[in-house]
Amino acid sequence: MTPTDHQTSQTTDQTTLQTLLASIRPADAAAMTSARERQAQLTKPAGALGLLEDLSVRLAGVFGTDRPHPRGVAVIVAAGDHGVVAEGVSAYPPEVTAAMVAGFTASTPSGMGGAAVNVIARTVGAKVYVADVGVNAELPTHPALENLKVRMGTRNLRLERAMTADETLQAILAGSDLAGRAIAEGADLLVPGEMGIGNTTPASAVTARMLGASVASVTGRGTGVDDATLARKRQVISAALDRDASHAGDPLGVMADLGGLEIAFMLGVMLRAASERRAIVLDGFVEGSAALVGVALAPELRDYLFPAGQCAETGHAAQLAHLGLTPMFDLGLRLGEGTGGVLAAPMLLSAAATLREMQTFAEASVPDRE
Questions:
Q1: For the segment 6-17, what is each residue's pLDDT rounded down to a tens digit?
Q2: Any catalytic annotation for residue 337?
Q3: What is the count of structural domains for the chain?
């Protein structure tokens, strides 16, 4: 590719992203008002379904009707490696990323994949998409693996920007494209998921920058590192922030400076889902870092975000508080892969079903409250 061709391609990508951002509209206020009115008439005491009632109203806003009927569930697992693992911030070696991708796509007696996300997805009827966006290895061709590699892992964020602006755009648009395909294939609930050894380090760095929070308050043990490794991890993130190469007013700059290829990819999944008025089920902390950048770019994105559970990773609660979102459960999860999001999908489908299919007091000929 000549310099002119590269510049043209980059300009096209920037235009595509701006068009995507501009297409995200707020949730349908009229549908939510109608849904609240319908909730008040259903055959149950007011508020008896708790959070499900709030979820059903929000789903009405996403799908533009007071009787939302979301059906297909897709989890899109993006895999990428991180140069910062050279700093000793993880309990596992980087080779595990490639090995886990193989596990996601392996043939098992029960179906495709033997990882937690595959097993849970099969149980609840969700479809799994797996994408290599930045694994630091040449993975064998596989019909169940999307080869969308931007580069062989990120650079070491302690020393330099993790990605160029162009690489960040490529990863975002790759996520958008795969999300578009999942939607075309029937997905109404999209779960962005990730696999990348060391990725809680960039997620913590992005979160600290976007929230203006202390490193200690948003940096936890990730894969279960010991005290010495946790201290080193926090020092590495502090050093990355001290490079002062990005600021919260430039969210894409923060993603390029401190993020990861799979994190940028998940951002693209979220933006595309919102642009096509589909619900986004957030898994945990790494996904939350992508959501922080996404809402900074397009505030209306928040209307489409449904956090599954508050994960055990330090900093996730701060992300959710900043976004003004309430998690559905707290199971102490910290696996990633989109597992929590897939677990939450039946709750969202059930919330929609209560609003859509329950009878009102009048329909059921049941006496209402005095």
A1: 667 778 899 999
A2: yes
A3: 2
